[in-house]
Amino acid sequence: MNTIAERLEIARTNITNFARNCSRKPNEIQLLAVSKTKPLSDIKAAYTAGQRSFGENYVQEGVEKIQSSTELTDINWHFIGPIQSNKTRLIAENFDWVQSVDREKIANRLNEQRPNHLPPLNVCIQVNIANEESKSGVTAEQARLLANTINHLPNLCLRGLMAIPVNTKDKKIQIQHFNSMKSLYDELKSNIATLDTLSMGMSQDTSTAIESGSTMVRIGTAIFGAREIKK
Ligand SMILES: *Cc1c(COP(=O)(O)O)cnc(C)c1O
């Protein structure tokens, strides 16, 4: 029954405590508030409570919110959903970040369609570190190639990697996958100076992700409450 402001505060306190527990600085870990399916009034409540980064999964819905909230200054909009190639223009023209880039064709289109008056679009590559068949995202090997491609596209700025958690309750397996993400991230970071973001960890696995080196956790339900199923 808490308000959005109270739940945000709890999420921030959790991040702070998880960071301290593994001797990391709390300010190394950003909170992305995942607002998909939630009304703009919820986003405004979080904004008033100091939240500036928001994640959206559906292009049309996200763009509508972005265009109706231009008075919210210094807000950062992250696209985190699957990308169809006929939607890249809307993403390039409206969002500040895209975390779900998983193929060269999409990267090229976003680069071509990013308007010149805007700063480069911040990009994370979505990695399917466990090679799960049902999941989108690239393998580690494909991520190396894609990182190199994106690094040469002038209207994109490669910021890092995004992982969707593996479907398991086994903490050991989870840690293994998070650690593989972290090694891949460190490897790419040693070659590409703009990398500063390892987006992994959601409500269920925030502490494990932070222990493994995450710099951004993505939390929806714990801040905004349960979502209705989207058709
Ligand atoms: C929905 C979503 C989240 C947030 O999930 P919750 O369970 O609501 O916290 C995080 N990351 C991605 C990519 C999502 O699609």
Question: What's a quick, concise take on this entry?
Answer:
It contains 9 helices and 8 strands. It has 231 residues and is an alpha/beta fold. Strands 7-6-5-4-3-2-1-8 form an 8-stranded parallel beta sheet.
Order of helices and strands: HEHEHEHEHEHEHEHEH
Structural class: alpha/beta
The main pleated sheet reads as: 8 strands, parallel
- Poorly predicted residue ranges: none
Main sheet: strand order: 7-6-5-4-3-2-1-8
What is the helix fraction of residues, given as a range?
40-55%
N- to C-terminal distance: 27 Å
Radius of gyration: 17 Å
Number of strands: 8
- Quaternary organisation: single chain
Strand content: 15-25%
Helical run tally: 9
Bound molecules: pyridoxal-5'-phosphate
Overall mean confidence score, pLDDT: 95
Shape: globular
Write the layout of secondary structure elements.
Elements: H1 4-21, E1 30-34, H2 40-48, E2 53-56, H3 59-67, E3 76-79, H4 88-94, E4 97-101, H5 104-113, E5 121-127, H6 140-151, E6 156-163, H7 171-189, E7 197-199, H8 206-211, E8 216-219, H9 221-224
Parallel strand pairs: 1-2, 1-8, 2-3, 3-4, 4-5, 5-6, 6-7
Helix pairs in contact: 4-5
